[in-house]
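Schema walk-through. Below, the input block comes first and the output block second. Nothing else is stored per chain. Lengths vary across the set, and this one has 129 residues.
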Amino acid sequence: MTAIVLFDGECNFCDSSVQFIIARDPNGYFRFAALQSDIGIELKKKYRIPEKLDGVIVIENNKVYDSSDAALVICKNLKGMWKVFYPFIVIPKYISDIMYKLVAKNRYKWFGKKDSCTIPSPEIRNRFL
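--- output ---
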């Protein structure tokens, strides 16, 4: 069983986040696709993900998680102490999304933007859809 992380392939912060996840997911639970890729576009259509959602999105067990919920689902499945953050899933989404939306809104300004997605190394290429 695996989960899919959809991410903004042009965002430096999102790219760093994907690398962070890979380093803490030795069993390969997460697979990845850029939102701008053909498979990302297909998955957005299949799961009826609104166009306005352009940050990190997790698809796990045919359920879509976005914003802070996506981040917490990722934490739940990482190696190490990151699991301790998952209980925050009980906080109402409108509250937990405040910080997430602040970073998401400013991610290009703060972290920059790329012209294209990073090409994964051969060791992790099979984790990208």
